[in-house]
Amino acid sequence: MRVLVIEDERALADAVARGLRREGMAVDTAYDGTNGHEMALTTRYDVVVLDRDLPGVHGDEICIDLVRAGLLTRVLMLTASGSVAERVEGLELGADDYLAKPFAFDELVARVRALGRRATPAAPPVLRVADVELDPAKRGVQRDGRMLDLTRKEFGVLEELIKARGGVVSSEELLERVWDANADPFTTTVRVTVMTLRRKLGDPPLIETVVGAGYRITAA
To answer: What ranges are recorded for DNA binding (predicted)?
Structure first.
């Protein structure tokens, strides 16, 4: 899952980003509305955690523009005010959820995960292909009953390949969905991650390389 945090309080933005990364998400940050507005509309994010009162472009305007663009991105709006009127106003602007500051981080994670499930086509709680089971909520993967110890990136790559349901996923798409904006698009990081993931999955081989296109997993 890829998340954008738009928050002008740098300490809070960085803390939220670090916490979400620990949960296995790819997270970008923007510290003002101008940069956040551009990033939200040019990169495909599952969820935008959006502070309402931002310098530059106001959070309300960013929310409205995301809705107008018809993107699947879901918006979790943050505000210092927890009044009913504020919550209603934010939701009427098109926000999918609303969270007042200060908030419990566990609640933020739960809300982001719930919104992320709505940002993509519906998928079962546990993903299965061949003899592999992947549980996004528990961050667990097993093959033929054997638990696998995967890194966050390996887990993310496997999740995206299973979700593709036999379709080919390019290296560029994996880089966009699993890594964040700091990833160098010219590195071999995706290829190396797929290589180590294949080794951990063991035999019979599960991930197929489609030359010039990317990778896929087929039930066969």
So the answer is: 124-219
